[in-house]
């Protein structure tokens, strides 16, 4: 049996890069080179993986030649491949941005090894086809994120980290308990195997209990209502490169897990969990955007917007039609690009002006018009103006809502879109447009190499959000293919186990 | 035996949640330790219990004789313990650093990042 | 840390080499029998921690010679690389590859990639535990 080695590369490359940068922890230069090479290698490998899955359909790799359902499998379907590709994009931007922004002490403390470890965990979670293995990758990702979060050791970081660590550990404990109960019920932990056998089970009450536990666990990870409080309390505290990486990837892994579990394993349509998901999606959107409206600090506003955008993704899942799922998937990809871009811009503003507080900032447009333009692109994309990627993301989800006659959800999504625009305009007016208080004005700084590198990554992300809007046709086909694969659980089981249920 | 274990697991969860609700950060970490142990014991219990039959295959045989304990559940627990160990070691370092910086062991004094 | 207990110090110097040898024994034993890299690594790390109890951080650092972070890096590298040979033999990642050798003293010996993986895990465990313990102990002093 031909085994697709390509499938393991998105996990192995960051692991190797992490090990190498640990070995060379004394040399700053070596770590930077490994950081760039490793993340670029990841992006290239994920591009090839995507192309292969596009041509050949779902790929399966039985690790160590132990066949499913006994061994651990890696399963690459379109959704996983698309997510891995976006992880690659996120990795490259973070690595390049870090060249300019991460200080010497942080590199010495282990920024690069931790970044690679985080990427390995994220990719592992996307690609695995085994429930317990998913837990392991989640934990790999979490441990790396804990350490990245306190890089710098300021008081706010410590306070944020305690909340982040506690709530994530509680969520992990729930995840683990759910796995234990599921194993007790099914006697297997291979996702395809469970999906095949769960219909035969008579104890439906127990299945509901387990599915609710998973919903809670992933809901915390994904920062869905009402379990999102850790996110705005911690995401604005770490270094900007770290914030951007977190904002781009971590919550999306939770959303991905929800997409995977509630399409493949737990019967979703017309059940309690679906109507629950509708409420969760709507309330997540609303609370996130209202929280953002009350904030006057650049990164806190952005953090609350992560929460509200998660709502749109969950709306895609809650509606549960191919178009809605495709919209949700496209929304995840769009959000990774636009949100990372905005966080990186906030870092550049901080570098020039030395503050994140809206009322202390101002006059950026006059001094740095290029940065203002980049902000406008990313912000309009986030708010959903055409022809940027955010418009099509919202359009797909809302269109699916109209088709399903989910009027309340559609109305909420539209209203939240306007509120998002309001938030973005608020930032624009305060940071970029208004005159800064005279006493604080610093003269424009000369661009050093590092700043130029930071600029380049933001330009890349802004370009990507325009490109994703313009190249909608092929992307739409990719997302539809991913969504149809999600709906077609028999195809997944067939690919992994080689039997037709 | 399973009934007894169920009560034990439930008790551990209750104790863990009680500890997590306390204001002291040290107690919070103790609560997290208890919580991860409770989850491990839950896996152990729900996988079924077989006494005095370790899952070892005799020399030369291809399968164990008779019913043996489920090795997969044990492997899961071992992995979970390893992960829990790593995470909790980190949590201890974290609260130590936090204590040095904040100079308090009280959640109520850590509200700067809340809004 | 000052060494208060004479008993601990005296027995410690005896126990340290014994524990380290026992950890190597566990490491090499554990493919078909109970043992393995993780447990062996914990035993070795516990031995070094014991040394830390009755001396201080600088002398423990001197005892282990290399920085624990190096151990961590090399271990992770070795463990990841041990999955690669399988690919060149046309199998999936992490498929075990075995070589049978007749060595002068040991006789018939089977060597394989799982051993490499276990040694990697051994180094990772020692590296992780000692990095954490030593940094905590340094913060105390």
Can you walk through the features of this model?
The complex is a heterotrimer of chains A (501), B (115) and C (141). Chain A has 21 helices and two strands. Chain A has one domain (5-496). With 501 residues, chain A is mainly alpha-helical. The longest helix of chain A is centred in the middle third of the chain and has 32 residues, at 155-186. In chain A, helix 12 (272-293) runs antiparallel to helix 13, helix 16 (369-383) packs parallel to helix 19 and helix 17 (389-403) runs antiparallel to helix 18 (407-433). Chain B is built from three helices and no strands. Chain B has 115 residues and is mainly α. The longest helix of chain B has 32 residues, at 71-102. Chain B has helices at 2-21, 25-46, 71-102. Chain B has a single domain (2-51, 69-109), classed as Helix Hairpins, CATH 1.10.287. Chain B is 64% helix and 0% strand. In chain B, helix 1 runs antiparallel to helix 2 and helix 2 runs antiparallel to helix 3 (71-102). The model of chain B has no long low-confidence stretch (mean pLDDT 84). Chain C has 141 residues and is mainly alpha-helical. Chain C has one domain. Helix content of chain C is 69%, strand content 9%. In chain C, helix 1 runs antiparallel to helix 2 (37-54). Chain C is globular, with a radius of gyration of 18 Å. The chains are: A mainly alpha (501), B mainly alpha (115), C mainly alpha (141). Chain A binds chain B through residues 132, 135-136, 139, 142-143, 146-147, 150, 153-156, 158-163, 165-166, 169-170, 172-173, 176-177, 179-181, 183-184, 189, 232-234, 236-237, 291, 294-295, 300, and chain B through 16, 20, 25, 28, 32, 35-36, 38-40, 42-48, 72-73, 76, 79-80, 83, 86-87, 90-91, 94-95, 97-98, 101-102, 107, 110-115.
């Amino acid at each position: 049996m031909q085994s697709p080695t390509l499938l393991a590369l998105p996990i192995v490359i960051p692991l190797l890069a992490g090990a190498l940068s640990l070995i060379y922890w004394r040399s700053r230069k070596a770590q930077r080179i490994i950081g760039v090479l490793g993340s670029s290698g990841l992006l290239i490998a994920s591009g090839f993986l995507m192309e292969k899955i596009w041509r050949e359909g779902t790929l399966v790799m039985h690790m160590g030649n132990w066949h499913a359902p006994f061994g651990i499998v890696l399963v690459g379907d379109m959704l996983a491949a698309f997510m891995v590709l976006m992880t690659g994009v996120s990795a490259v931007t973070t690595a390049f941005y870090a060249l300019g922004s991460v200080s010497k002490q942080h590199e010495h403390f282990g920024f690069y090894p931790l970044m690679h470890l985080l990427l390995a965990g994220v990719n592992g979670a996307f690609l695995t086809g085994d429930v317990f293995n998913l837990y392991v990758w989640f934990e790999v990702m979490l441990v790396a994120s804990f350490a990245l979060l306190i890089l710098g050791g300021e008081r706010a970081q410590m306070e944020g980290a305690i909340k982040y660590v506690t709530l994530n550990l509680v969520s992990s404990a729930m995840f683990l308990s759910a796995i234990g109960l599921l194993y007790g019920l099914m006697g297997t932990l291979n996702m395809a195997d469970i999906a095949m056998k769960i219909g035969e089970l008579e104890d439906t009450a127990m299945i509901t209990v387990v599915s609710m536990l998973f919903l809670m666990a992933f809901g915390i990870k994904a920062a869905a209502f009402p379990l999102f409080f850790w996110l705005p309390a911690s995401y604005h505290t770490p270094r900007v490169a770290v914030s951007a990486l977190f904002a781009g990837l971590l919550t999306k892994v939770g959303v991905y897990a929800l997409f995977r579990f509630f399409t493949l394993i737990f019967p979703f349509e017309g059940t309690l969990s679906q109507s629950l998901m509708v409420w969760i999606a709507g309330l997540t959107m609303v609370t996130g955007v209202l929280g953002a409206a009350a904030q006057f600090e650049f990164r806190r506003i952005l953090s609350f917007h992560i929460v509200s955008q998660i709502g749109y993704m969950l709306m895609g899942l809650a509606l549960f039609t191919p178009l809605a799922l495709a919209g949700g998937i496209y929304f995840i990809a769009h959000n990774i690009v636009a949100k990372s871009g905005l966080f990186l811009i906030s870092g550049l503003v901080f570098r020039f002006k030395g503050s994140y507080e809206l009322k202390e900032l101002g006059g950026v447009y006059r001094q740095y018009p290029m940065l203002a333009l980049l902000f406008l692109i990313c912000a309009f994309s986030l708010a959903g103006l055409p022809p940027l990627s955010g418009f099509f993301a919202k359009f797909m989800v809302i269109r699916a809502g109209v088709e399903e006659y989910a009027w309340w959800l559609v109305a909420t999504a539209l209203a939240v879109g306007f509120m998002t625009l309001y938030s973005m305009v608020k930032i624009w007016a305060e940071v970029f447009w208004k005159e800064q208080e005279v006493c604080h004005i610093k003269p424009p700084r000369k661009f050093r190499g590092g700043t130029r590198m930071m600029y380049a990554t933001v330009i890349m992300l802004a370009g990507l959000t325009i490109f994703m809007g313009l190249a909608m046709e092929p992307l739409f086909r990719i997302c539809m293919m991913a969504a149809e694969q999600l709906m077609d659980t028999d195809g997944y089981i067939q690919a992994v186990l080689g039997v037709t249920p | 035996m399973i009934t007894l274990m169920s009560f034990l697991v439930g008790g551990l969860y209750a104790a863990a949640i009680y500890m997590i609700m306390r204001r002291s950060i040290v107690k919070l970490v103790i609560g997290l330790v208890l919580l991860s142990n409770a989850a491990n014991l839950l896996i152990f219990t729900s996988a079924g219990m077989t006494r005095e039959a370790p899952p070892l295959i005799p020399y030369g045989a291809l399968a164990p004789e008779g019913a043996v304990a489920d090795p997969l559940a044990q492997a899961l627990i071992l992995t979970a313990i390893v992960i829990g160990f790593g995470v909790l070691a980190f949590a201890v370092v974290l609260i130590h650093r936090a204590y040095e910086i904040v100079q308090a062991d009280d959640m109520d004094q850590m509200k700067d990042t809340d809004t | 840390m000052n060494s208060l207990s004479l008993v601990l110090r005296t027995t410690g110097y005896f126990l340290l080499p014994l524990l380290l040898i026992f950890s190597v024994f566990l490491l090499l034993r554990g493919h078909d029998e109970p043992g393995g890299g993780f447990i062996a690594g914990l035993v070795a790390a516990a031995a070094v921690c014991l040394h830390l109890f009755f001396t201080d951080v600088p002398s423990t650092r001197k005892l282990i010679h290399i920085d624990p972070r190096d151990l961590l890096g090399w271990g992770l590298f070795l463990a990841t690389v041990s999955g690669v040979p399988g690919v060149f033999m046309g199998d999936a990642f992490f498929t075990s590859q075995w070589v049978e050798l007749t060595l002068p003293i040991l006789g018939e010996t089977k060597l394989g990639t799982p051993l490499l993986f276990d040694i990697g895990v051994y180094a990772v465990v020692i590296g992780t535990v000692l990095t954490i313990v030593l940094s905590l102990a340094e913060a105390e002093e």
